[in-house]
Amino acid sequence: MTLILKILAVGLLHVAFFAGYPETGPYGNYFLGVSLLVWSVFIIFINTSTKLIRFVSGAAGLAVNLAAFALMAAAIAFTMPQRDKTSVLEKLQKGKYPDRDTVNAGMLRFGVKLDTSVKNGVKGLDAEVGKAIKKLKEDQ
Fold it and tell me: Cα separation of 123 and 137, whole Å?
Protein backbone atom coordinates (compact mmCIF):
# COMPACT_ATOMS: atom_id res chain seq x y z
CA MET A 1 0.00 0.00 0.00
CA THR A 2 1.54 3.29 -0.98
CA LEU A 3 1.91 6.21 1.36
CA ILE A 4 -0.68 8.29 -0.48
CA LEU A 5 -3.29 5.56 -0.11
CA LYS A 6 -2.52 5.30 3.60
CA ILE A 7 -2.97 9.04 4.09
CA LEU A 8 -6.24 8.88 2.13
CA ALA A 9 -7.32 6.05 4.44
CA VAL A 10 -6.54 8.31 7.42
CA GLY A 11 -8.82 10.95 5.95
CA LEU A 12 -11.52 8.41 5.17
CA LEU A 13 -11.45 7.09 8.73
CA HIS A 14 -11.85 10.62 10.07
CA VAL A 15 -14.72 11.33 7.68
CA ALA A 16 -16.43 8.10 8.76
CA PHE A 17 -16.24 9.04 12.44
CA PHE A 18 -17.30 12.63 11.85
CA ALA A 19 -20.19 11.61 9.60
CA GLY A 20 -21.37 8.96 12.03
CA TYR A 21 -21.14 11.15 15.11
CA PRO A 22 -21.51 14.76 13.90
CA GLU A 23 -22.43 16.40 17.22
CA THR A 24 -18.86 17.48 17.96
CA GLY A 25 -19.61 20.91 19.37
CA PRO A 26 -17.65 24.09 18.72
CA TYR A 27 -14.21 22.45 18.73
CA GLY A 28 -15.03 19.61 16.34
CA ASN A 29 -13.56 21.23 13.25
CA TYR A 30 -10.34 22.09 15.10
CA PHE A 31 -10.14 18.52 16.37
CA LEU A 32 -10.62 17.23 12.82
CA GLY A 33 -7.79 19.35 11.42
CA VAL A 34 -5.32 18.65 14.20
CA SER A 35 -6.17 14.95 14.31
CA LEU A 36 -5.74 14.59 10.55
CA LEU A 37 -2.35 16.28 10.75
CA VAL A 38 -1.12 14.26 13.75
CA TRP A 39 -2.27 10.90 12.38
CA SER A 40 -0.92 11.62 8.90
CA VAL A 41 2.51 12.32 10.38
CA PHE A 42 2.21 9.16 12.49
CA ILE A 43 1.36 7.09 9.39
CA ILE A 44 4.32 8.58 7.52
CA PHE A 45 6.56 7.53 10.42
CA ILE A 46 4.99 4.06 10.60
CA ASN A 47 5.32 3.68 6.83
CA THR A 48 9.10 3.97 7.12
CA SER A 49 9.16 1.40 9.91
CA THR A 50 6.85 -0.90 7.99
CA LYS A 51 9.16 -0.91 4.98
CA LEU A 52 12.01 -2.07 7.22
CA ILE A 53 9.82 -4.77 8.78
CA ARG A 54 8.73 -6.01 5.35
CA PHE A 55 12.31 -7.06 4.66
CA VAL A 56 11.81 -9.70 7.34
CA SER A 57 8.19 -10.60 6.66
CA GLY A 58 5.43 -9.15 4.49
CA ALA A 59 2.78 -10.40 6.93
CA ALA A 60 4.48 -8.59 9.80
CA GLY A 61 4.40 -5.35 7.79
CA LEU A 62 0.69 -5.80 7.16
CA ALA A 63 0.12 -6.51 10.86
CA VAL A 64 1.93 -3.29 11.82
CA ASN A 65 -0.20 -1.29 9.37
CA LEU A 66 -3.42 -2.83 10.67
CA ALA A 67 -2.35 -2.21 14.26
CA ALA A 68 -1.59 1.44 13.46
CA PHE A 69 -5.04 1.95 11.93
CA ALA A 70 -6.73 0.15 14.82
CA LEU A 71 -4.86 2.39 17.27
CA MET A 72 -5.92 5.42 15.26
CA ALA A 73 -9.59 4.38 15.24
CA ALA A 74 -9.56 3.73 18.98
CA ALA A 75 -7.85 7.05 19.72
CA ILE A 76 -10.27 9.01 17.55
CA ALA A 77 -13.25 7.27 19.13
CA PHE A 78 -11.89 7.97 22.62
CA THR A 79 -10.89 11.62 22.12
CA MET A 80 -13.41 13.01 19.62
CA PRO A 81 -15.43 15.76 21.34
CA GLN A 82 -19.19 15.31 21.66
CA ARG A 83 -21.85 17.77 22.85
CA ASP A 84 -23.25 15.26 25.35
CA LYS A 85 -19.78 14.69 26.90
CA THR A 86 -19.99 10.95 26.11
CA SER A 87 -17.11 9.66 24.02
CA VAL A 88 -17.78 7.89 20.74
CA LEU A 89 -16.07 4.82 22.17
CA GLU A 90 -18.60 4.66 25.01
CA LYS A 91 -21.44 5.11 22.52
CA LEU A 92 -20.10 2.24 20.43
CA GLN A 93 -19.73 0.04 23.50
CA LYS A 94 -23.35 0.77 24.48
CA GLY A 95 -24.53 -0.09 20.95
CA LYS A 96 -25.53 3.46 19.98
CA TYR A 97 -24.64 3.25 16.31
CA PRO A 98 -25.37 6.05 13.83
CA ASP A 99 -28.58 5.86 11.82
CA ARG A 100 -29.26 7.15 8.33
CA ASP A 101 -30.40 10.61 9.47
CA THR A 102 -27.27 11.06 11.58
CA VAL A 103 -24.99 10.10 8.69
CA ASN A 104 -26.90 12.46 6.37
CA ALA A 105 -26.43 15.29 8.89
CA GLY A 106 -22.77 14.39 9.29
CA MET A 107 -22.11 14.38 5.56
CA LEU A 108 -23.71 17.83 5.27
CA ARG A 109 -20.73 19.08 7.27
CA PHE A 110 -18.56 18.09 4.32
CA GLY A 111 -20.96 19.54 1.75
CA VAL A 112 -22.36 16.21 0.59
CA LYS A 113 -26.13 15.86 0.38
CA LEU A 114 -26.59 12.11 0.45
CA ASP A 115 -30.34 12.12 -0.21
CA THR A 116 -29.92 14.25 -3.33
CA SER A 117 -26.93 12.22 -4.51
CA VAL A 118 -28.79 8.94 -4.05
CA LYS A 119 -31.89 10.23 -5.84
CA ASN A 120 -29.81 11.47 -8.76
CA GLY A 121 -27.96 8.16 -8.88
CA VAL A 122 -31.20 6.19 -8.90
CA LYS A 123 -32.60 8.36 -11.70
CA GLY A 124 -29.44 7.80 -13.74
CA LEU A 125 -29.57 4.08 -13.05
CA ASP A 126 -33.22 3.92 -14.11
CA ALA A 127 -32.37 5.71 -17.36
CA GLU A 128 -29.51 3.30 -18.10
CA VAL A 129 -31.67 0.26 -17.32
CA GLY A 130 -34.37 1.63 -19.63
CA LYS A 131 -31.82 2.03 -22.42
CA ALA A 132 -30.53 -1.49 -21.88
CA ILE A 133 -34.05 -2.97 -21.95
CA LYS A 134 -34.89 -1.04 -25.09
CA LYS A 135 -31.73 -2.27 -26.79
CA LEU A 136 -32.46 -5.86 -25.77
CA LYS A 137 -35.98 -5.61 -27.26
CA GLU A 138 -34.56 -4.22 -30.49
CA ASP A 139 -32.02 -7.04 -30.73
CA GLN A 140 -34.70 -9.72 -30.47
Answer: 21
Query: Could you tell me the sign of the dihedral formed by the alpha carbons of 81, 33, 37, 11, in that order?
Result: positive
d(CA 47, CA 53): 10
CB 20, CB 98: distance < 8 Å: yes
As a 3-state breakdown, the chain gives helix, strand, coil percent values, each rounded to 5, of: 75, 0, 25
Per-residue pLDDT tens digits for 46-72: 988 888 888 888 788 888 989 999 999
Name 80's Cβ contacts closer than 8 Å, sequence gap at least 6.
Answer: 17, 18, 21, 24, 28, 31, 35, 87, 88
Size of the chain, expressed as the number of residues it contains: 140
Q: In angstroms, what CA-CA distances link 80 with 15, 62, 68, 74, 114?
A: 12, 27, 18, 10, 23
CA 115, distance to chain mean position in Å, is: 18
pTM, full prediction: 0.72
CA-based diameter of the chain, in Å? 64
Q: How far apart are CA 107 and CA 80, in angstroms?
A: 17
